[in-house]
Amino acid sequence: MTSQYSIKDLERITGIKAHTIRIWEKRYNILNPKRTNTNIRYYCNDDLKHILNISVLVKNGHKISRIAGLDDHELSQKILELNNIRTPERSGQAETLIVAMIDMDEVKFEKVLNNSILKIGFEDTLFAVIYPLLNKIGILWQIDSITPIHEHFISNLIRQKLYTAIDGLPAERGPGNKTFLLVLPQWELHDMGLLVYNYLIRKKGHKSIFLGQGVPLRDLAAINDKIDPDVLVTSFSTAVDVEEMTEYLHKLSGFFPGRPVYTGGIQSEHLNSGLPSNIHKVPSALDFRDKVLKKF
User: Fold this and answer.
1) Which of 118, 48, 49 has its CA nearest to residue 79?
2) What predicted TM-score, i.e. pTM, was given to this entire model?
3) Which residues is 182 bridged to in the sheet?
4) Which of 43, 108, 199, 227 could make an SS bond with 47 (beta carbons 3.0 to 4.6 A apart)?
5) What pLDDT is stored for residue 82 in this prediction?
């Protein structure tokens, strides 16, 4: 794992413009970038955590001139005092959780996320905190700055929150509501997106049958009559050939004719035309909540 970041990397992760970071460096000496043998400036993990902590406080109204001289412990203490913030999109929880991920600090992660859930509820925390966090983790993946260990650490903690939230919802099917079957192709191991859909479906009052990953298509065909779902949901996150995804969707459509099939996940963006008429791409979980579920 590399621990070298360019100033543009810091900008993408923190949301603070590179120009602003340079000004803060000169005026307040908040960072001390190192240089490669070819004289190119770079930053390390400690620099990233420091600027992330500063960005959280600045987003919450602290003046840079007042916090520039604080060490990391003092910055962390101030962040933990932000208990009266009610607008998570401004409070920088995602940045704080990135620091918790880098340090593998489960206590800090739990404090920040539980505080948000207590104030605004799980669903709003999902879209205002967890999704921005996952986007920032995606950036760190792109620049090769986190290991699979970090990804497993954070994703398992989020998955636990999803399981808890789903378990807290009623399982009974309301009058007139639908049955959703949620399933992943055999090659797909990332089930977090499908868990989010499962939560949203149950929150809406529908019945969900969550099969998750590793279900052979032939088994789906065999249990079609027993399940008789109204709607199917799947997701593609692992990079595979478009032809393989398309073939899977054609078979899924054939096993459940006349039933709408919704497919999410980042790899679904690569699906082109020529899909069966009952296959519908979902750009995001927010679209699934605000557009798809409103149809049922």
Assistant:
1) 49
2) 0.75
3) 210, 233
4) 43
5) 65
Pairwise CA distance, residues 214 & 131, whole Å: 25
Tally of CA atoms within 13 A in the half-sphere of 240 that contains its CB? 17
Contacts of 169 (CB under 8 A, 6+ apart): 199, 202, 203
Q: In what order do the strands lie in the sheet with 207-212?
A: 207-212, 179-183, 231-235, 261-264, 279-281
Lowest mean per-residue pLDDT among 59-63, 120-124, 156-160, 208-212: 59-63
Model pLDDT for residues 119-171, shown as the tens digit of each residue: 889 999 999 888 888 877 777 766 666 777 888 898 899 999 999 999 999 87
Determine the angle formed by the axes of helices 45-59 and 72-80, rounding to 10 degrees.
Answer: 40
Tell me 43's DSSP state.
Answer: B
Return the domain boundaries, the chain: 45-167, 179-295
pLDDT tens per residue, range 10-49? 888 888 899 999 999 999 999 888 888 888 888 988 888 8
The terminus-to-terminus CA distance of the chain in angstroms comes to 46
Is the CB of residue 267 less than 8 Å from the CB of residue 245?
A: yes
Can you name the residues that pair with 262 across neighbouring β-strands? 233, 280
Give me the CATH topology for the region 179-295. Answer: Rossmann fold (3.40.50)
**Residue 158 DSSP SS3:** helix
C-alpha distances in Å from residue 125, one per residue of 74, 89, 94, 162, 168: 26, 10, 10, 11, 16
Q: What is the per-residue burial (b if ≥16 Cβ within 10 Å, else e) of 75-112?
A: bbebbeebeebeebeebbbbbbbbbbbbeebeebbebb
